[in-house]
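Regression check, histidyl-adenosine monophosphate case 433:
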Amino acid sequence: MFNIVKGTHDVILNEATKYTYVENLLERVAETYGFKEFRTPIMEYSELFLRSTGESSDIVRKEMYTFQDKGDRSITLRPEITAGTIRSMVNEKLFANQDYPIKAYYVGPNFRYERPQQGRYRQFNQFGIECVGVTSPFRDIEAIMLGYNALKLLGFKNITLQINSLGDKQTREDYQKALREYYSKYVDEMCDDCKERFNINILRILDCKVEHDIEINKNSPKIEDYYSGEARRDFEIIKDFLTDNGIPFEINSNLVRGLDYYSGVVFEYRYTSSQGKDYGALGGGGHYNNLVKEIGGPDIEGVGFAFGIERLVKLMEDDSLFNNEEETIDLYIMPIGMQNQKICFELATFLRNNGYSVDICLENKAIGPMFKKAERRNALYAILIGDDEAKNKTLNLKNLTSQEQITVKFDDLLTILDDMFGECEDEHDHHHE
Ligand code: HAM
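Current build output:
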């Protein structure tokens, strides 16, 4: 027995179908907003993350899967996809013609050495978008709405959208100074993590989940008192627009997020299942002013977010948001006698090439067990071929719902099937084209 690596999980069978469904829906939504797919490598040189995600973020300090390769280069399995996506835009010279914004979406695995728990894995999948080369707060709104609408299309109701603005550079410098002054009085009584945050990333203290620290945080200086005129104006535009468009949101002035590259608006989508389960944020993101330049691109801004696919699927399962229709196959082919397997096999190939989902019994079974098998596979029709049928180039086609059986010539089969499946396609949108 070999164990699966701690913090990773298999996605197989029905579960995999759910992942594909969720990913495909998100991709389709992104396409309707004009985003194009980017597939960047899972490994990047470590420097990319050291620069972009910020050396003081928890991810960089504690959670990266970093190793030396055989050429003694420091390689990191990506902990997120934003940095790699922007690196690709720089390397592929997408900024050269200044046809902004560049709109990217992506899906794929990420790696973080976190403590595994419900909704938290060491290898997990994200869907995300980046809109790069933006000047208008309406691009931030577009990104927020894309995520919100996608969640609605997946079936989520009562999503909580939390937003905050981290202002511009001056805002954060002034605010950090105020925080330092405030927390210097309390830091000795705060948790060890906060003691560390006090020195390296003071904003993250606001995120602390320890009860005593939450009390202290209640009276801390508030960022809204440090916004510049422009930061305040953009945030007002965003809030007004969301209100006018009936998108409910909460302002959480302690929302700072785990990555260091944000400025301006940041946001998170949260959801609690009907049984009260919450696996952490479904997704989050925000605006970034300096990231593109830090990665070697021009001095332009961007906005993006990412969803955690594991959390989406888990909550959709908990709240029965997946359509529970059992999977069917179109046809189950039953050779009566080994000598007829070859002709049945050829027929299966022919039908598959014409778009039908087909299973075939190649195990030399009696008729009874073959029907049992067809039933377990949820086959809609059975095809039976014995010696007489093989000789006459006919077959028996049985409707497994009505139990009606007809004899059909090989040459007529496709027309008959296309007719029958064409009819039920009108009723339940059959997948056969
Ligand atoms: P993030 O908040 O670190 O942002 O991750 C986004 C989402 O990924 C989270 O809300 C969560 O659903 C999921 N996630 C994160 N860590 C785990 C984990 N260990 N196990 C399962 N799911 C997890 C980013 O990654 C940014 N790159 C988002 C962004 C794009 N910002 C701007 N553009």
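Comparison notes: Confidence is low (pLDDT under 50) at residues 429-433. The two ends are 43 Å apart (CA to CA). No diff flagged against the previous build.
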